[in-house]
Amino acid sequence: MKVGAVIITMGNRPEELRALLDSVAKQDGDPVEVVVVGNGSPVPEVPEGVRTVELPENLGIPGGRNVGIEAFGPGGGDGTDVDILLFLDDDGLLARTDTAELCRQAFAADPELGIISFRIADPETGVTQRRHVPRLRASDPMRSSRVTTFLGGANAVRTKVFAEVGALPGEFFYAHEETDLAWRALNAGWMIDYRSDMVLFHPTTAPSRHAVYHRMVARNRVWLARRNLPALLVPVYLGVWLLLTLARRPSGAALKAWFGGFREGWASSCGPRRPMKWRTVWRLTRLGRPPII
Known about the structure:
Layout: E1 3-9, H1 14-25, E2 33-38, E3 51-54, H2 60-71, E4 84-88, E5 93-94, H3 99-109, E6 113-121, E7 145-147, E8 154-158, H4 159-165, H5 177-187, E9 191-201, H6 213-228, H7 234-247, H8 252-267, H9 278-286
Parallel strand pairs: 1-2, 1-4, 2-3, 6-9
Antiparallel strand pairs: 4-8, 5-9, 6-8, 7-9
Helix pairs in contact: 5-6, 6-8
Domain Glycosyltransferase 2-like: 6-162
InterPro entries: Glyco_trans_2-like, Nucleotide-diphossugar_trans
Organism: Streptomyces griseoaurantiacus
């Protein structure tokens, strides 16, 4: 199975990007084809053979990754150059040289497997943050399992998934775009695995470092529900997240931004609505995360 990699960059981390590209080049087996997308910025100098695309404006994380997908062929699937696409943060680093080969083996062994979520670990401490384990029972990051979502900057996707369910939701710009794709993939019959042995080194960070974090998290949470959930579950899902947000006692400024995004999610278009089947709701529940949490 042929493997490609999509990396988006703002051009402000040239040393980290080069280290990541070196780690991709060292992967066992056939070479991994790489596309680096400059998301509203020039692409720093890259090794020979790495393809680059420079966008005139920042399209956000899902929009930039969609451009990378298209660089491998229209929409993925039968028209694409590769069978598997890795999506990697530009300040990450593949910890092992067998990650691409493990992906090939996993997808070849399980025809229902559509997405693999890697384990993210701090390069100095080896610690995996709880929020980087994509399941509710996240206390043991070393346990691999079936999951219901995945990590956006450390994953592998079978290109047939994009051909069947479409690309990432570009209008989200930042936050929850992975869960939107995950729910659509699960609804189409694909499965998602979290693999602790596929590791991306990445410095420990807080998601709230982004200025738009609270507004977009809330807006996109509403969009996610409106686009994908059966009507009966939309108020339940959003009600649960409202209570969880209040229980976390954010600052006044953060809460104001959150409620602004929450209102925006209801007042603005969420894109096409394609509610999942109740059979998918049951599948999510059996996997340990019913779509109300």
